[in-house]
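task queued by scheduler; priority normal; single chain, no ligands, no partner chains; default sampling; output format set to structure tokens
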Amino acid sequence: MQGKCSNQPYLLLMQTSKAIQERIKTELVPYKLNLTEFSVLEVLHLKGTQTIQQVGHSILISSGSMTYVIDKLEQRGLLERKACPNDRRAIHVLLTEDGTNLMTELMPMHQELVDDMFSDLDHEEAETIVKLLEKVNRKPRREFI
């Protein structure tokens, strides 16, 4: 039957990704954060001050969506914008004290959840998954239209 995807690795990867995202979303409900908002805060927590473009590139969302998410997080007092001293066109974003405190509380629980999701894998299996996903990710893109 044409039009039906029969690529089992792709389907399983998508199903697994969705299941992981659903578990993380559940973890974020008490903090009134969605997955994208958490991802922005996580990047800033792990990498420090970033430009809006750098954050968007890290979490793979468009600049228009980034602006909306950053506006919401800024209104909540979790991050702030600052002009980039070296490039007047760029804007830096960084966690506020409240944002840092929230991420200091959230990250250990988040890491525990992620560790639990992958706990049935031994070290070699985890390394194999990483190598295989990196191999798929490195494949050059091609146009289908």
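post-processing summary
- The chain is about 65% helix and 10% strand.
- The radius of gyration is 18 Å.
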